[in-house]
Amino acid sequence: MAALEDCYSIARLRAAARARLPAPVFDFFDGGAEDELTLRDNQDAFQRIRLVPRVLRDVARVDLSTRLLGRPAQLPVAIGPTGAVGFGWRGGDVDLARAAARLDLPYALSTSATASIEEIADKAPGRLWFQAYILQDKARLDNLIARALAAGYEGLVITVDLPVGGKRERDLANGLGFPMKITPRNFWQFARRPAWSLDMLIRRPPIMPSLAGMRKVEANRKAMESVAGRNYDPAFDFTGLARIRERWPRALIVKGVVHPGDVDPIVALGVDALVVSNHGGRQLDTGIATLDALPDIVAAARGRVPVLLDGGVRRGSDIFKALALGAAGVMTGRATLFGVLAGGQDGVARALDILRDELARTMQLCGARTLVDISPDVLRMPIEGNRRETE
């Protein structure tokens, strides 16, 4: 396994994470829905856009700082919600939150995290958001939101792109369930990673406190159902979102918007930010890449609320391109997730350092001294039919 100092890209952090985790566990974090076309296209969309640098600017120093939802951040980045992190690195949720706090970045705790709302607030105080999945159990959902409010979380993230779970075929092939467990069918895959497996056997697998007591979720290969979305409410609509807006007095962020026709009714409810997201390609396959969706969402928002982008961010130049297309910032998912899976808090810090270094370098090479200087005139948009072939 590569040392963190040898991980000079997010791709190398991904390789380091893969080297230390059993294949079914890595596949859970790395995989997407069905043929994983959207998963790949999220990254490919960034690669289809080329940069046209401006020159003869004084870029001896560049300023990467910004304001996200009215508060300062050292980077235009929030760490997005990722579930079940503790199965990949014990205590990983806290590690992600602490790394974010060091740079004044928001950290969104997932409903399916392996740390409680209160544990994160106690061990990693900072800019905390709670990401609420819309559970069928509305009493539990209300309780979680009330606990986040009492614990001082500044933002509530409502994920709206998961009415039903995606068909994640890697999870089906691996027979993955929660809690993760070693079975005769997957024994040898876990045996190849003895450090992870012995830790889980001796110390027991972590739990998901926010979902404790709910029915166990197993992959059902016969019914072609993976573990995702099995306890969520497919009837949630604008009325349900309005109810949450009434109950939550702080910043409300809606994550999972890709169609411009959805923007006006959501903004009309008084939300504070939108996140262009397709759940990292983990739900609907062949869905639009988030970078391709971003310009229309920004146009529909008309400056009324900031728009963040989630999905496919692996390079600092990706952040640059998202900002040039009107995003107020990005949410990292797998980029920082691979960091924590590779090396805990140090791995997350490494991932953020990589993105910060690459963003600063891209700004200097494109003649932008501040984030405000990043504009669409340095982008060469893709020509139809000139797309890189996917493998």
List keywords for this structure.
391 residues, alpha/beta, TIM Barrel, two-stranded antiparallel sheet, 14 helices, 39% helix, 12% strand, disordered C terminus, oxidoreductase activity, acting on CH-OH group of donors, FMN, FMN binding, Alpha-hydroxy-acid oxidizing enzyme
CATH architecture: Alpha-Beta Barrel
Distance between the termini: 26 Å
Low-confidence parts: 385-391
- Determine the strand fraction and express it as a percent band: 5-15%
Structural class: alpha/beta
CATH fold name, please?
TIM Barrel
Going by CATH, what is the homologous superfamily? Answer: Aldolase class I
Counting DSSP E segments of at least 2 residues, the number of strands comes to 14
Percent helix range: 25-40%
Query: Please, how many domains?
Result: 1
State Rg: 20 Å
Average predicted confidence as pLDDT: 92
- The best one-word shape is globular
Q: SSE order, as H and E? A: HHHEEEEHEHEHEHEHHEHEHEHEHEHE
Binding site for FMN: 81-83, 110, 131, 159, 255, 277, 310-314, 333-334
Domain FMN hydroxy acid dehydrogenase: 2-384
Active site: 279
Binding site for glyoxylate: 133, 168, 279, 282
